[in-house]
Design a protein that fits this description.
alpha+beta; 7 strands
Length: 458
């Protein structure tokens, strides 16, 4: 019984001590924070805000990423279980048949048969003297953090894709509206040129040119409608609801331009999921190298049994059937074919590779931020140029209208001036939406945070 008490005490101490380590788990941020809803509210678009929440609840990619994170959490628990003692009951019921005479000195035991009832509680525990199993669990926790960053990256990718497609759909709506007007105006122009041709006031080439232009306008309209359908289909996939029949959106006239920085500090990349993930990757491999190094050291397995061993079922729990044992089994690999050394070197090389991946991630992150910033500046310049051109066309149209009212211009002249104004407006619409999307791309490049906090004074 003394051995039994020692064994139970040892199990309680080990389990209690290791349970303390189980509490050392990072606090997980609420997933809604990954959406950064406050940043999207500055666009003042209720439909966009509504769809952001809809995506949070229904997007399939986000659900897949969440499931992968939960899987990784269970892997951590699996690894931690290796740090705990293993207890099991392995009962045995059998019948022994002796087919030969057994001698113990002068004592002779003839042939016999008997039943045996063995009911032990078995404990095994690998003493983690060198902390190898503990380091393995820490390594897997780093992998969990890497997967959490993958999940956060999914949120950034999905929300920015939603917003970009949403605004491209608004652009498509406005361009289709303008293109339809162009087709109607050009149809009227073709009719007028036919009348002029019949009156001998223009050549056949002029008529053919206007008809050719009409077919081009119709072709552009068809392409815009196709793009509109594609964008709607893509948004339905992002929203994750197969039953959606239409996408509610605001009109072009209600869109709002937001501020963007003229320059951004390099520290802006510190929130990017890929950069944070590469940092955890380095930490993980650093732990893996330590584990591989400690694998060269000897291991110690504590084992023991407490239970009952009887030859009759009625005596299983009798006073003289108690059985117990306790021991330590050291083990050391004298030769493993170079496997451990190869694994150690492999982890070292992988660690060196992780350092290079980290450096490359920094360079790639800076490039993406700079590219997004340059694209945003170009979009803003193009917007200003198209706005100026649109205002010029408005002035030209107003002059043509005045001339038409006093009889100094024909109906054909006013229609062509209207066409030129609409074509200029199309360019201005495209540049306006492109400017909004360029701001979204900056947001994406800095890791889904407000980029204005990193604005650098010039």
């Amino acid at each position: 019984m003394k051995i039994f008490k020692i064994l139970i005490t040892l199990i309680v101490i080990l389990a209690g001590g290791l349970a303390v380590n189980a509490k050392d788990t990072p606090v997980v941020a609420d997933k809604i924070e990954y959406m950064n809803l406050d940043w999207w509210k500055q666009f003042n678009d209720e439909n966009l805000n509504k769809y952001m929440l809809f995506v949070y609840e229904n997007n399939k990619d986000l659900k897949i990423a969440a499931a992968e994170t939960k899987q990784a959490q269970q892997v951590v628990k699996l690894s931690f279980s290796d740090q705990l003692p293993q207890l099991k009951i392995s009962g045995q019921v059998g019948r022994e048949f002796s087919g030969a005479t057994t001698r113990f000195g002068d004592l002779v035991i003839p042939d016999y048969s008997q039943s045996r009832f063995f009911l032990p509680l078995t404990m095994t525990y690998e003493l983690d003297i060198w902390g190898e199993n503990y380091l393995k669990t820490k390594s897997i926790k780093q992998r969990l953090e890497m997967i959490r960053q993958d999940e956060r990256a999914s949120y950034i990718m999905i929300t920015t894709a939603l917003a970009s497609n949403y605004y491209n759909l608004i652009k498509a709506d406005k361009l289709i509206e303008n293109q339809t007007k162009l087709v109607d105006l050009q149809t009227e122009i073709v009719k007028l040129y036919d009348i002029k041709y019949k009156g001998g006031l223009c050549s056949v080439n002029e008529v053919l040119f206007e008809k050719q232009l009409l077919t081009m306008f119709k072709e552009d309209l068809n392409n815009l409608k196709e793009k509109q359908d594609v964008l709607e289909n893509q948004l339905k996939v992002i929203l994750g609801d197969r039953n959606l029949t239409s996408i509610d959106r605001s009109t072009y006239d209600s869109v709002k331009l937001i501020d963007f920085p003229m320059d951004i500090q390099s520290v802006a990349i510190q929130n990017r999921p890929d950069l944070i993930k590469s940092e955890f990757y380095i930490k993980k491999l650093g732990l893996d190298v330590k584990v591989a190094r400690r694998d060269f050291l000897p291991k110690f397995l504590v084992f023991g049994q407490v239970g009952f061993n009887a030859y009759q079922l009625s005596d299983v729990f009798g006073s003289h059937t108690f059985l117990s044992n306790l021991g330590v089994m050291p083990s050391f690999d004298l030769f493993a074919g170079g496997r451990k050394m190869a694994m150690f070197k492999y982890k070292k090389y992988e660690y060196q590779k992780a350092l290079q991946i980290y450096e490359k991630t920094i360079l790639t992150s800076l490039q993406e931020v700079n590219d997004a910033l340059v694209s945003s500046k170009t979009a803003r310049k193009n917007l200003e140029a198209s706005k100026e051109r649109f205002e010029i066309e408005q002035n030209k149209y107003e002059l043509a209208d005045k001339k038409f009212n006093i009889g100094a211009a024909s109906n054909l002249d006013i229609i062509k001036a209207k066409e030129a104004l609409i074509i200029s407006e199309k360019s201005h619409v495209s540049n306006t939406i492109d400017t909004i999307i360029s701001a979204i791309n900056i947001y994406k490049s800095v890791g889904g945070v407000d980029y204005m906090q990193f604005e650098e004074a010039i």
